[in-house]
Design goal:
- The protein is an alpha+beta fold and 244 residues long.
- The chain has helices spanning 6-9, 102-110, 137-152, 225-237, and strands at residues 13-15, 18-21, 32-35, 38-41, 49-50, 63-64, 68-73, 80-85, 94-98, 115-121, 128-130, 167-171, 180-186, 191-192, 198-201, 204-212, 217-222.
- The protein is globular.
């Protein structure tokens, strides 16, 4: 279980109902905060992002501290808050749960049964398809988990790329003319996996690597062949992609 940064406790600032235990610099997010006598901590959703436009961006904050605005998170199975640093030029909130519920919260958001799966077209809200309960989530998850694995790995795309055995190079003009998305969203609507790092080429589904402007090519990474065929089939069934 994540512990309070003891070195910074001496810098605690009492603000209304909250006692905040920040990191040791004013431009960082606190490890924990005490609200109405309960300690809230972060660090339970490392591979997830706030779903869609970030949570409650335009709502009035529940309270504020010297460096952050704080919002009570509604409609989740747990009591949570999110915080936005006042000096950040982009919306990048951090979620906090009760310290005594950290294990349960971590387990909840790590369990893929607590998510809905989607396919669609990037930046097109009318082309986001919620997949029904009969979908093969194991195949979808094999692709999503591989994407997360590559995101967390070091050296991907470099000279000593540890995934070079599944890496291919695609000419810009040979890729499909859509930017597909595949992702899952927690059933409380709070968190999502990465959505847009995918590419379709030669009727197969790949994880997007990088674009090389000097050669006008993309690098891409193969996923499980059965998963690729299944996902391409879903895009075809829902009219998002026509196989050639």
């Amino acid at each position: 279980m994540k512990k309070i940064n003891i070195l910074c406790v001496v810098a605690a600032m009492i603000v209304g109902v909250a006692v905040i235990f920040p990191g040791c610099t004013s431009d960082s997010n606190p490890d924990s905060i005490e609200i109405d006598g309960a300690t809230y901590v972060n660090g339970f959703y490392n591979d997830l992002y706030f779903s869609g436009f970030a949570y409650r961006e335009y709502d009035t904050a529940s309270f504020e501290t010297d460096n952050h605005y704080w919002w009570k998170v509604e409609e989740t199975p747990f009591e949570m808050y999110c915080a936005q640093h006042k000096e950040k030029s982009w919306w990048n909130p951090v979620a906090y749960c009760k310290e005594n519920e950290l294990d349960a919260v971590t387990a909840y958001y790590a369990d893929t049964a607590n998510y809905d799966y989607y396919i669609g077209i990037y930046a097109d809200d009318t082309a986001q398809i919620l997949l029904d309960s009969g979908v093969n989530t194991a195949l979808l998850e094999s692709a999503i988990s591989k994407n997360i694995e590559l995101d967390n790995a070091t050296g991907v795309g470099g000279i000593f790329d540890p995934y070079k055995d599944i890496k291919i190079t695609i000419s810009y003009g040979d890729r499909a003319d859509i930017q597909p998305v595949l992702y899952r969203v927690s059933k409380d609507g709070l968190f999502t996996t990465v959505q847009s790092e995918w590419i379709i080429y030669d009727n197969s589904f790949y994880i997007f690597g990088v674009y090389d402007g000097s050669s006008d090519t993309y690098s891409a990474y193969k996923i499980d062949e059965e998963a690729s065929e299944y996902i391409i089939g879903l895009f075809s069934i829902y009219g998002l992609y026509k196989q050639s």
